[in-house]
Amino acid sequence: MQLLLLLALLSPLTHSQSFIEAISAYPQLSNFTALLLNDTSLTASLLNTTSHNQTILAPSNTAFLQYQTLTGQSIEAVDPNLLINTLQYHTLNATLNSQSLKSGATAQKGAVVGTQLIDTRYNRKGKLDESNIGSPGQVVYITTAGAAGKLGRGVESGLSGRQLRVGATVNAGAGTSTNMDLVDGTWDGGTFQIVDSFLTLPINCTTTIASVNLTNLTTAVSNVGKTDKWNSYQGITCLAPSTFIGTDLSTTNPDKIHTLSNLLGAHIIDGPQYTTTFQDGQTFISGANTTIKVTVDQVGLVWFNDARVVRANVVTNNGVIHVLDKVRCFCSFPWARGFSLCYLLVCADCCAAGSV
Fold this sequence. Notes:
The protein is of the alpha+beta class. It folds into two domains: 194 residues, Roll (FAS1 domain), CATH 2.30.180.10; 148 residues, FAS1 domain, CATH 2.30.180. It is built from 13 helices and 14 strands. The strands form two sheets. Strands 2-1-7-6-5-4-3 form a seven-stranded mixed beta sheet. The longest helix is centred in the N-terminal third of the chain and has 22 residues. It comes from Glutinoglossum americanum. Keywords: Signal.
């Protein structure tokens, strides 16, 4: 019994030593290595709370320089709790390598991966059974070139140093993304890859919408008085139209505000629903009690009724946003799918009739 207890106590230390030894072989990780050597509590927070293999997204020297340039302070100088939360967001609860990311369904759809980040300021996704990804921690969305091209995100590598090669993109909070160099480094507890910036922690739904430049949508949500409601949801999927055709977003007419509120309700789904597990023909019920049908075509493009996803899986602290090419038509006319004036000619009448 004493031997088992001793082994349990030594295991985190062994993992820490293994990880630091592994990353110290990479010159572009010298700042990260020094950070962990200077503060052992950071290493403990990075490699904890799971018995499964992990993937650490190790920030490069470029990430340290970029953080100081953007914020005016070094990452070492930030609040310790913020630094711990950030590093926990860099700790993925899965083994990811170049082969797994570039093969099978992951190559086409990308991967939504749970992390060690559980602080409720950044992770209010709701109950596990309300999501199609069974992760208690906050998530990141990782894409390689194939998936990124279909869903509106490019992939490039800005790193230099050992084992440089084009990798993947990690999509994190506030609509931000960073390049990932797939070095497939290994240590006793799993693998590590290299990222060229520190991941941005998730923020609330409407602020994230604004951060990806969907000003029409933020105006609409504010005008109908739903900003606090959207941000207080414990798990929400927002279908965010990039354009609003024929809609008066600044109206003060009570009837039109009611119509706009119903229209927005038709663009939210309970629980965070990520595109990586969607099946063609799958349906959801919207916040306006309308049916949303998912179409996944042969090349991996995703549609909600007639609206195509142009950017998928934008992470918020309380769910996820999928950016659409237009307002989703909620009418049941089969010819409406793909017809760019669907909302203007058909759905506007449905809204006015109160049928949403």
